[in-house]
């Protein structure tokens, strides 16, 4: 295992990455509300000498680590971009320009063109909204529980679709599109809602808002591709399906990278390796 690691201390999760004995990237996730777990991990890996660091909670993490190791900080957007470039190549993509939508605790949207990138916008609707709303509505707060149950749910009795409004008429847009997220609840007043259905509907709300915004930026920038990243997509096939279907319907190409949650940590690691002139 190399003596360098990359860490992305995010709003909810702290992601850690290093190059293992097999010369492959290995990943760890810690909750950002308990940095002592990161400190313990480092104490158990005393050969780590250098840390590439990024993320909004960098300062808070440094205060807990209180370490003498060599630290190299990289601003989050730069680290994410570096990580995305690396993963695109690793996953076999050759894309010149694209929208990058990072679904973290909140969502940040960027435009990349060649070697440059700019932040074009974002929304407070993100992974934190998914877990927060799910907890308040169903009492379920565990991310894996939320996503696995959502995958079994149906939105039919909760979301109001275009076809529900234009009954007996030809709708002006595709009938299966959402007219109003959760819009059927106040119309079908007596319906009982199952937990799985509620969770599926929350995921769709979050996914559709993020996709709608991403598509608008893709059209403004004339970008064919939208790369969706962030830990909210980890093992979350249901959310990916919502996002992919809508992106494709709007004539854009969605890309989901294999290690979508770790772009920032990978960027921070690569940056530190470059600074220390270590090849990987
Ligand atoms: N094990 C997990 N525990 C909690 N949330 C998880 C877990 N795995 C995935 N998630 C989801 O990932 C989201 C956080 O994504 P990510 O790690 O990309 O954001 P972040 O870097 O912490 O936040 P930000 O970039 O906005 O500062 C959570 O809000 C949740 O929806
Ligand atoms: Mg993040």
From TrEMBL:
The keyword Kinase applies. GO terms for biological process: coenzyme A biosynthetic process. GO terms for molecular function: ATP binding; pantothenate kinase activity. It comes from the Bacteria. Pfam families: Fumble. GO terms for cellular component: cytosol. Gene3D superfamilies: 3.30.420.40. Transmembrane segments: none annotated. Keywords: ATP-binding, Coenzyme A biosynthesis, Cytoplasm, Kinase, Nucleotide-binding, Transferase. It is an enzyme of class 2 (transferase). Its EC number is 2.7.1.33. The keyword Cytoplasm applies. NCBIfam families: PRK13317.1. This is Type II pantothenate kinase.
């Amino acid at each position: 295992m190399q003596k360098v690691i990359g860490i992305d201390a995010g709003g909810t999760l702290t992601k850690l990455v290093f190059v293992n004995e097999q010369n492959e990237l290995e990943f760890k996730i810690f909750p950002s509300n308990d940095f002592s777990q990161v400190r313990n991990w480092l104490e158990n890996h005393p050969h780590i000498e250098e840390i590439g660091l990024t993320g909004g909670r960098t300062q808070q993490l440094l205060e807990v680590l209180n370490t003498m190791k060599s630290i190299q900080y990289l601003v989050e957007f730069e680290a994410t971009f570096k990580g995305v470039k690396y993963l695109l190549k690793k996953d076999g993509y050759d894309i010149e320009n694209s929208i990058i939508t990072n679904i973290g605790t909140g969502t940040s949207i960027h435009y990349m063109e060649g070697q440059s990138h700019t932040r074009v916008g974002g929304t407070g609707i993100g992974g934190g909204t998914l877990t927060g709303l799910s907890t308040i509505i169903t009492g379920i707060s565990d991310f894996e529980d939320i996503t696995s149950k959502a995958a079994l749910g149906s939105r039919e009795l909760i979301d109001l679709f275009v076809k529900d409004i234009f009954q007996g008429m030809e709708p002006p847009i595709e009938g299966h599109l959402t007219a109003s997220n959760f819009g059927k609840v106040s119309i079908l007043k007596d319906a009982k809602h199952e937990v799985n259905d509620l969770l599926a509907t929350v995921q769709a709300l979050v996914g559709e808002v993020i996709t709608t915004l991403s598509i608008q930026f893709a059209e403004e920038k004339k970008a064919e591709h939208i790369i969706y990243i962030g830990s909210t997509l980890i093992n979350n096939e249901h959310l990916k399906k919502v996002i992919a279907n809508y992106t494709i319907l709007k004539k854009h190409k969605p890309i989901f990278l294999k290690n979508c949650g770790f772009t920032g940590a990978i960027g921070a690691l690569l940056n530190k390796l470059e600074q220390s002139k270590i090849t990987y």
